[in-house]
Amino acid sequence: xxxxxxxxxxxxxxxxxxxxxxxxxxxxxxxxxxxxxxxxxxxxxxxxxxxxxxxxxxxxxxxxxxxxxxxxxxxxxxxxxxxxxxxxxxxxxxxxxxxxxxxxxxxxxxxxxxxxxxxxxxxxxxxxxxxxxxxxxxxxxxxxxxxxxxxxxxxxxxxxxxxxxxxxxxxxxxxxxxxxxxxxxxxxxxxxxxxxxxxxxxxxxxxxxxxxxxxxxxxxxxxxxxxxxxxxxxxxxxxxxxxxxxxxxxxxxxxxxxxxxx
Length: 262
Hints:
- InterPro entries: Glutamyl_endopeptidase, Peptidase_S1_PA, Peptidase_S1_PA_chymotrypsin, TRYPSIN_HIS.
- Its EC number is 3.4.21.-.
- This protein has 262 residues and is α+β, with helices and mostly antiparallel strands.
- Helices cover 12% and strands 29% of the residues.
- It contains five helices and 16 strands.
């Protein structure tokens, strides 16, 4: 599990982690994790804080295009019972170079709300105006497209904020299928705090976020994501259209293979 508060609640007693056979590491498949450079694309990725910069950052999120220019995507488990979460794009070295944006509304699928289904561990959130200029977040840092039904074995770059670090980490590697509904990557050093980290395809679009199996995994060197399909696409469409306050991603038709939004 990658949620910082959940990790801190674990006992210091060592435990034996049992990983399914199809989740084992593959020789030579791991990417290299480095400090993420301060680029325009990485400015769209940010840390989620409790209340503000004086609190702790507990997860990662990123800006995706929407009509209101005010939507981020993260893992559903990151925003459960978080009434005062704040998004800080481009957070680095204790600074918020673009300002902060409060999370106003959170949208998850019914299957997550009812059963915390690992296959529905995705959330979208609508943000309020920014702290510096009152602008919407997309108007300040830009946004990535969201792509659904992308191949599960593509090359991706994962950018996220470990809970004990003030700089984002980046790893580029190849994702592989994990069962029929999820995908995995081998990127060293993605512990608590990296839940919700976007998986960006070669064209920059978001095709996953750390979450899903074991809320992102129980090994900091192997991370998981729900495969973005019709459920995520329908949920995203409902959020960006702002047509409902209680959203079910089970509605609507599944987008075609590789469909991109924005």
